[in-house]
Fold this protein.
Amino acid sequence: MNNSQDWVRHFESNLKEQRIDWTQATQITNEEKKQIIRSLQAWQLGETSEGKNLRRAAEKYAKQQDDWAYLDAIDLFIKEEQKHGENLGLYLDRIGAKRLKKDLGDTLFRKVRYFATNIEIWTATVIIVESFAQIYYKAIADATNCPLLQEICVDILKDEAHHIRFQYERLHQITKPRTMLWKRITFAAYHLMFYIIMIAIWFGHRKALKAGGLDFKKYSSKARRKFRFVRHKIENVNTQKRELDCLEIEQSH
Ligand SMILES: [Fe+2]
Ligand SMILES: [Fe+2]
């Protein structure tokens, strides 16, 4: 398991990586645009959050734990999320699509985040959303033949695989001292949150997900597998379950 200092090093070196060839032209077709761009505009907006509330919750937690490197890691994590937003924004600019200023799903999600002042609620929400982000960007990469958009998606997928690990290690640390009963209640709450987010994302983005080859059955079964993986990791962060690690790697590409 990494400590906060390790994560700072990871984020610092990952931010220097340039995995997208911006010199290439966009090759998205009008048909592909009809299927995915409205949805991509909404995700782009979602990736641009300033992360002020997360930072506040992280600061409170870092103080309690006397782990100030965790706050540095969170700052770099927020930067990486903003990079996703900026890359998607640049892509939208290139194809002449607007960057949205408002979206209903985004507004609701921001409201929920505003009231979450506790790092556990934050981290659990983020890890669930990131699990769906992996499904989503893989579907977008499959829904287009534009190499630039595919590279942007793969870059995000690679980052998200690390983000998921960053979050489950922290949730492991937070939930580890709890009793069996308290853990069950905790996971029941995470599960409920997972289903709410699963339905919300499906209704908001089903057109794009379908274009990427996912009907509701495939989408929800992929999502449930991911949730099982995350839950397993939160409970047993150090055990080496080969097949589950493979799943993470497979789905990060
Ligand atoms: Fe992201
Ligand atoms: Fe992320």
Observations:
- The chain has a mean pLDDT of 91.
- The two ends are 23 Å apart (CA to CA).
- The domain at 30-250 is CATH 1.20.1260 (Ferritin).
